[in-house]
Amino acid sequence: MDCPVCGGDCVRPAHEVLAALPTRFFPCPSCRMQVLDKRAPLPVLTYPEPCSCGKRFIDGVFAHLYVIMREEGDLTRDDPLIAVGSPLVHPGFAMDRPPFLPEKSLVLLSGKVTEKTARRIAAEVPEVQGVVQTSPGIPGLASHEPGAVPRSHTLLAGCDVRADLVPVGEQTLVVYKQQSVIHVEFPRAGYPKIRSVAARVGKPLAPLFVDACSGPGTLGLAAASLGVPHVILNDAWYAAAFWSAVNIGVNRRYFAVDDVKICAQYAKMAACPVLRVPEKVAETRGRQVLEVYQGDFQNLVSVIPRDTGPVTALDIFDKQDQGVVSALLRDWQSRVGGSVFVP
Predict the structure, then answer these.
(1) What is the pLDDT of residues 267-287, one digit of tens each?
(2) How far is CA 208 from CA 47, 91, 249, 293, 307, in A?
(3) What is the pLDDT of residues 178-190, one digit of tens each?
(4) What is the rounded CA–CA span in Å between residue 264 and residue 251?
């Protein structure tokens, strides 16, 4: 599909992303690595050029970014290299060594970058795919309470669509998102959320899995890849629901589906970013049924088939208040049935 942000080919099927992965971040024999002190200013305002293979060590890329931001006045002479911002590589996964970056493999999140600088970075730094100006708060809905105000960062230049890789058994999911409007979630060692889904769907498989607060769809996609015959993904935030739908198509080879129908357009969803009454965003045809909705999970009971005894993952943001979480779990259990857990 064409990228809904930039119109390019940013979104690729999972098998194509994974086929290119073994060599994507590895150096050629001519590549050079220079490790820089991230806690100190760049000692000399210079940077290495990319290798003839088109890759450059990540510290060299950050030196290039630092020089531009210093020249444009976004950084001072005393700012350390780390002040440039946070690098999000595409695709993202647990690496055992710093990467050598090819073209269009990095989304930069920075609270210091200005629009003028971002445009210059996108034009002059080949490894950068997009530049995002961060603001306080977490993109999306950080609370399940009605009336919660959504937040987002600002894409200043390029495209900020990128993917993370999530292993599920013998398979690896490719989960895309637009980074300025969906929060960064670094997976914990061992992927405990995925393991909890695998344990809950069980053997024999649960007939229905509900990913009630899906984000870009990771837990629902995991359940589907494990063979659950019916999966419902839902999120009140437009970007989460839309990318859940896109990620079904990206990973469709893992599912017993014939086709994926997306019923909504990204730009139109952005015009009404939070919905309370669930509306269908996507559905599949085939031996497995996957559905995506945008709406308040507390109203999702209206689209869940009765007496199916679903397994429900309730991965809400605000899970620190155990009293609130317990009340939500009891309410879901009484109205929907089946089993419900917080991964």
Answers:
(1) 999 999 999 999 999 999 999
(2) 54, 30, 20, 15, 11
(3) 999 999 987 677 8
(4) 19
Token pair 């990771």 is found at 218
Q: Which residues contact 205 (CB under 8 A, 6 or more apart)?
A: 226, 227, 228, 229
SS3 call for 194: helix
d(CA 178, CA 233): 18
Tokens of 152: 């987002």
Closest C-alpha among 262, 274, 271 to residue 235: 274
Pick the CATH number of 188-341 from 3.40.630.30, 3.30.70.1560, 3.40.50.2300, 3.40.50.150: 3.40.50.150
List strands edge to edge, sheet with 311-313.
257-262, 279-286, 289-294, 230-235, 208-211, 311-313, 339-341
- CA atoms of 76 and 231, how far apart (whole Å): 51
Number of other residues whose CB lies within 10 A of the CB of residue 307: 6
- Look at the block and give the residue holding tokens 């629901």: 241
| Least confident segment among 71-85, 205-219, 303-317 | 303-317
Q: Give Cβ neighbours of residue 45 (< 8 Å, ≥ 6 apart).
A: 66, 67, 70, 71
Instruction: State the amino acid at position 85 in one-letter form.
Output: G
**What DSSP assignment string belongs to 106-161?**
EEEEESS--HHHHHHHHHH-TTEEEEEE--SS-SB----STTPPPB--EEEEE--E
Residue boundaries of the structural domains of the chain: 14-137+151-158, 188-341
CA 230 – CA 253 distance, rounded (Å): 16
Task: Give the predicted TM-score (pTM) of the model.
Answer: 0.95
| Rounded Cα distance, 18 and 272, in Å | 34
Contact 130, 153 (CB under 8 A): no
236 close to 294: Cβ distance less than 8 angstroms:
yes
> Tokens in use for 145?
């309470």
CA distances from 80 to 64, 66, 87, 107, 120 (A): 14, 9, 15, 20, 21
3-state class (DSSP) for residue 232? strand
